[in-house]
Amino acid sequence: MNKDQKNDVIELLKSKFSQYNNFYITNTESLTVAQVNNLRRVCFDKNVEMKVAKNTLIRKALESLDAEKYTGIYDALNGVTALMFSDSPKEPALIISAFRKENKKVEKPELKAAFVGDEIYTGDAQLANLVKIKTKNELIGDVIGLLQSPAKRVLAGLLEKAKKEGAGAEVEAPAAE
Protein backbone atom coordinates (compact mmCIF):
# COMPACT_ATOMS: atom_id res chain seq x y z
CA MET A 1 0.00 0.00 0.00
CA ASN A 2 1.52 3.30 -1.06
CA LYS A 3 1.38 6.58 0.88
CA ASP A 4 -1.60 7.96 -1.08
CA GLN A 5 -3.62 4.81 -0.47
CA LYS A 6 -2.80 4.96 3.24
CA ASN A 7 -3.88 8.62 3.36
CA ASP A 8 -7.15 7.70 1.63
CA VAL A 9 -7.84 4.99 4.22
CA ILE A 10 -7.04 7.42 7.06
CA GLU A 11 -9.43 10.01 5.60
CA LEU A 12 -12.16 7.40 5.18
CA LEU A 13 -11.71 6.25 8.78
CA LYS A 14 -11.73 9.83 10.06
CA SER A 15 -15.05 10.44 8.32
CA LYS A 16 -16.53 7.26 9.84
CA PHE A 17 -15.29 8.13 13.34
CA SER A 18 -16.79 11.62 12.94
CA GLN A 19 -20.06 10.30 11.52
CA TYR A 20 -20.79 7.73 14.24
CA ASN A 21 -20.89 8.23 18.03
CA ASN A 22 -20.49 4.49 18.53
CA PHE A 23 -17.89 2.10 17.22
CA TYR A 24 -16.60 -1.29 18.26
CA ILE A 25 -13.12 -2.68 17.74
CA THR A 26 -13.20 -6.44 17.29
CA ASN A 27 -10.86 -9.31 16.57
CA THR A 28 -12.06 -11.49 13.71
CA GLU A 29 -8.91 -13.57 13.45
CA SER A 30 -9.54 -17.30 12.95
CA LEU A 31 -12.96 -16.74 11.37
CA THR A 32 -13.38 -18.43 8.01
CA VAL A 33 -14.14 -16.39 4.90
CA ALA A 34 -17.71 -17.72 4.98
CA GLN A 35 -18.13 -16.67 8.61
CA VAL A 36 -16.76 -13.18 7.92
CA ASN A 37 -19.09 -12.83 4.92
CA ASN A 38 -22.02 -13.94 7.08
CA LEU A 39 -21.03 -11.42 9.76
CA ARG A 40 -20.81 -8.65 7.15
CA ARG A 41 -24.26 -9.59 5.82
CA VAL A 42 -25.79 -9.44 9.31
CA CYS A 43 -24.11 -6.08 9.93
CA PHE A 44 -25.45 -4.73 6.64
CA ASP A 45 -28.98 -5.92 7.49
CA LYS A 46 -28.80 -4.18 10.90
CA ASN A 47 -27.35 -0.89 9.53
CA VAL A 48 -23.95 -1.48 11.08
CA GLU A 49 -20.93 -0.67 8.91
CA MET A 50 -18.06 -3.10 9.20
CA LYS A 51 -14.58 -2.08 8.04
CA VAL A 52 -11.25 -3.87 8.29
CA ALA A 53 -8.14 -1.70 8.50
CA LYS A 54 -4.58 -1.76 9.69
CA ASN A 55 -4.11 -0.82 13.33
CA THR A 56 -1.57 1.91 12.57
CA LEU A 57 -3.99 3.59 10.16
CA ILE A 58 -6.83 3.39 12.68
CA ARG A 59 -4.61 4.93 15.33
CA LYS A 60 -3.48 7.76 13.00
CA ALA A 61 -7.10 8.52 12.13
CA LEU A 62 -8.13 8.65 15.80
CA GLU A 63 -5.10 10.71 16.81
CA SER A 64 -5.75 13.25 14.07
CA LEU A 65 -9.33 13.72 15.32
CA ASP A 66 -8.69 13.93 19.08
CA ALA A 67 -5.70 12.09 20.51
CA GLU A 68 -6.75 12.45 24.18
CA LYS A 69 -10.39 11.48 23.67
CA TYR A 70 -9.44 8.06 22.27
CA THR A 71 -6.46 7.30 24.55
CA GLY A 72 -8.10 4.22 26.07
CA ILE A 73 -8.65 2.71 22.63
CA TYR A 74 -5.02 2.53 21.49
CA ASP A 75 -4.10 -0.54 23.55
CA ALA A 76 -6.82 -2.50 21.74
CA LEU A 77 -5.22 -1.87 18.35
CA ASN A 78 -3.30 -5.10 17.88
CA GLY A 79 -3.77 -8.26 15.84
CA VAL A 80 -6.52 -8.48 13.23
CA THR A 81 -8.95 -5.59 13.66
CA ALA A 82 -12.45 -5.11 12.31
CA LEU A 83 -14.36 -1.94 13.12
CA MET A 84 -18.13 -1.85 13.53
CA PHE A 85 -19.77 1.58 13.21
CA SER A 86 -23.36 2.12 14.34
CA ASP A 87 -25.86 4.79 15.30
CA SER A 88 -27.17 2.39 17.94
CA PRO A 89 -24.94 1.96 21.00
CA LYS A 90 -25.83 -1.70 21.45
CA GLU A 91 -26.54 -3.11 17.97
CA PRO A 92 -22.94 -4.28 17.37
CA ALA A 93 -22.95 -6.01 20.78
CA LEU A 94 -26.19 -7.78 19.88
CA ILE A 95 -24.73 -8.86 16.53
CA ILE A 96 -21.57 -10.24 18.16
CA SER A 97 -23.56 -12.10 20.82
CA ALA A 98 -25.99 -13.58 18.30
CA PHE A 99 -23.13 -14.57 15.98
CA ARG A 100 -21.40 -16.43 18.80
CA LYS A 101 -24.60 -18.27 19.73
CA GLU A 102 -25.14 -19.28 16.10
CA ASN A 103 -21.56 -20.51 15.78
CA LYS A 104 -21.22 -22.30 19.11
CA LYS A 105 -17.61 -23.38 18.60
CA VAL A 106 -16.50 -19.84 17.73
CA GLU A 107 -15.42 -17.34 20.40
CA LYS A 108 -15.01 -14.63 17.77
CA PRO A 109 -15.56 -11.89 16.94
CA GLU A 110 -13.95 -10.89 20.18
CA LEU A 111 -14.59 -7.42 21.55
CA LYS A 112 -11.33 -5.57 22.05
CA ALA A 113 -12.86 -2.18 22.83
CA ALA A 114 -15.96 -0.10 22.23
CA PHE A 115 -16.51 3.63 22.11
CA VAL A 116 -20.12 4.38 23.01
CA GLY A 117 -21.10 8.01 23.29
CA ASP A 118 -18.07 9.31 25.15
CA GLU A 119 -17.41 6.15 27.17
CA ILE A 120 -14.74 3.57 26.43
CA TYR A 121 -15.32 -0.11 27.21
CA THR A 122 -12.30 -2.39 26.97
CA GLY A 123 -12.15 -6.14 26.88
CA ASP A 124 -14.49 -8.91 25.83
CA ALA A 125 -15.96 -9.09 29.34
CA GLN A 126 -17.72 -5.77 28.64
CA LEU A 127 -19.89 -7.33 25.93
CA ALA A 128 -22.61 -8.33 28.42
CA ASN A 129 -22.80 -4.73 29.70
CA LEU A 130 -22.99 -3.32 26.18
CA VAL A 131 -25.91 -5.60 25.28
CA LYS A 132 -27.85 -4.11 28.22
CA ILE A 133 -27.35 -0.47 27.20
CA LYS A 134 -30.65 1.21 26.42
CA THR A 135 -31.05 3.13 23.20
CA LYS A 136 -32.43 6.66 23.13
CA ASN A 137 -35.84 5.38 21.98
CA GLU A 138 -35.95 2.77 24.75
CA LEU A 139 -35.17 5.45 27.35
CA ILE A 140 -37.86 7.74 25.95
CA GLY A 141 -40.36 4.86 26.10
CA ASP A 142 -39.44 4.18 29.73
CA VAL A 143 -39.93 7.84 30.67
CA ILE A 144 -43.28 8.02 28.87
CA GLY A 145 -44.39 4.83 30.64
CA LEU A 146 -43.41 6.29 34.00
CA LEU A 147 -45.26 9.53 33.28
CA GLN A 148 -48.39 7.71 32.13
CA SER A 149 -48.53 5.31 35.07
CA PRO A 150 -50.02 7.71 37.70
CA ALA A 151 -52.58 9.05 35.20
CA LYS A 152 -53.66 5.51 34.33
CA ARG A 153 -54.17 4.69 38.02
CA VAL A 154 -56.30 7.80 38.56
CA LEU A 155 -58.45 7.02 35.52
CA ALA A 156 -58.87 3.40 36.58
CA GLY A 157 -59.96 4.53 40.05
CA LEU A 158 -62.49 7.00 38.62
CA LEU A 159 -63.92 4.39 36.27
CA GLU A 160 -64.23 1.88 39.13
CA LYS A 161 -66.01 4.46 41.29
CA ALA A 162 -68.38 5.32 38.43
CA LYS A 163 -69.22 1.64 37.92
CA LYS A 164 -70.00 1.16 41.63
CA GLU A 165 -72.21 4.24 41.76
CA GLY A 166 -74.00 3.25 38.54
CA ALA A 167 -74.68 -0.30 39.79
CA GLY A 168 -76.04 0.86 43.17
CA ALA A 169 -78.58 3.32 41.82
CA GLU A 170 -81.77 1.90 40.40
CA VAL A 171 -83.27 3.51 37.38
CA GLU A 172 -86.89 4.44 37.83
CA ALA A 173 -89.22 3.91 34.93
CA PRO A 174 -91.37 6.89 33.98
CA ALA A 175 -94.90 6.75 35.35
CA ALA A 176 -97.66 5.93 32.88
CA GLU A 177 -100.23 8.65 32.44
UniProtKB/TrEMBL annotation:
PROSITE patterns: RIBOSOMAL_L10
GO biological process, one term: translation
Stored SUPFAM superfamilies: Ribosomal protein L10-like
A GO molecular-function annotation: structural constituent of ribosome
Domain of life: Bacteria
GO cellular component annotations of the record: large ribosomal subunit
UniProt-listed InterPro entries: Ribosomal_uL10, Ribosomal_uL10-like_sf, Ribosomal_uL10_bac_type, Ribosomal_uL10_CS_bac
Keyword check for Ribonucleoprotein: yes
Record's keyword terms, sorted: Ribonucleoprotein, Ribosomal protein
Role played: Forms part of the ribosomal stalk, playing a central role in the interaction of the ribosome with GTP-bound translation factors.
Protein name stated in the entry: 50S ribosomal protein L10
Annotated organism of origin: Chitinophaga pinensis
